[in-house]
Amino acid sequence: MKAAVWHGRQDVRIEKVGEPPAPPPGQVQVRVAWCGICGTDLHEYMGGPLYIPLDHPHPVTGVQAPVIIGHEMSGEVTAVGEGVENLAVGDRIAACPIIGCGKCRWCRSGSMAQCDRVAFLGTSWTGGALAERLNLNAYQCYHLTAAISDEIGALVEPFSSTVRAVAQGQPGPEDNVAIVGAGPIGLMALMAARLRGVKRVIAIEMADRRIEAAKQCGADAVINPLCEDPEKRALEITDGAGFDLVMECAGQPATVLMAAKLTRTRGRLVIMGVFEKPAAIDLTDVVFREKTISGSMSGYGLYDETIRMMTDPRFRADLLITDHIGLDDLVGKGYYGLLNEKDKHVKMLVRPE
Ligand SMILES: [Zn+2]
Ligand SMILES: [Zn+2]
């Protein structure tokens, strides 16, 4: 079968690989329908390896480079291993990429994403979603309802991480929420906040296309820091209080500093951006105004809730899925398209056949 295999930095090859074996006990085999390209895929390609084990096998899965990549997937179960009860051949699923050790305190308490030895689909698992087929643990698979197409199913993974990140900030119906950065994750966080039901959602963004996308995705207003002072504007919008919840979705030193400032006294800042190096926050301001800062990692535990939310008509997959490509175009049209024309694309889906 055909697969996208990461061999090294800037060396991802589309090649013929062996079919996965019959699924072992506890696993199922899945034919991939669609797989989205994620920002972390671009990081692995341009500057990796970040999470791909290079010189030693992963402690839980035994996998090391070269690995089949891809983790934002939907597909159909084609074979079921021994002991799997909740899945049958023909079931349509979305996959959660988290694979824990199963033994540590985090795995045993329902927080597998926090496992110190966690493995991920597409970086340290036996198969990746940018291939025709792969084996998955049955616990990684979540049923897609008839209302969710295969294409929308490929958005479950990234959308679930924003659903969980918004939930970390616990916004109420009277809260004003700011989304800093209207890239793919920012736009999904915006919809997740909207669907949760908050008073206002404001996006903070500088690129014209993304400003437009944020408005279409339901932003009540967009603050462009190139044209106006974001702090002043934030106070005007929130009747002088500042934002109850700020979601940092850009991952830049300047944006996290701003995101912390825009958070009101005793407000919450949730960080979803992936930072290339440590970034500064004005901690005196955090202390004096008793702000809460938290990170949020993956949508583990909220997949069924996410799938339910995605059936709401206000979830606009049509605004998020901007491109469809085949596996052979992954590097050229896919990676370089996203790297060179960032704001032209939101989510690019790949058909691995
Ligand atoms: Zn992802
Ligand atoms: Zn563990």
For the record, give the distance between the C-alpha atoms at the N and C termini, rounded to a whole number. Answer: 8 Å
The CATH topology of the largest domain corresponds to: Quinone Oxidoreductase, Chain A, domain 1
CATH hierarchy class name of the largest domain: Alpha Beta
Q: Largest sheet at a glance?
A: 7 strands, mixed
User: How large is the count of helical segments?
Assistant: 12
Rg, Å, rounded: 20 Å
Bound molecules: zinc ion
- Find the structural class using helix and strand composition: alpha/beta
Give the number of domains. Answer: 2
Strand content: 25-35%
One letter per element, helices H and strands E, the order comes to EEEHEEEEHEEEHHEHEHEHEHEHEHHEHE
Q: Based on Cα principal axes, name the global outline.
A: globular
Instruction: Classify the oligomer.
Output: single chain
- Quantity of strands, as a count: 18
Which whole number gives the mean pLDDT? 96
In the predicted model, the low-confidence regions spanning at least 5 consecutive residues are: none
Corresponding CATH superfamily of the largest domain: Medium-chain alcohol dehydrogenases, catalytic domain
Describe it.
Helix content is 28%, strand content 26%. The protein contains twelve helices and 18 strands. Strand 11, helix 5 and strand 12 (200-204) form a beta-alpha-beta unit. One zinc ion binds at residues 38, 40, 71-72, 157-158.
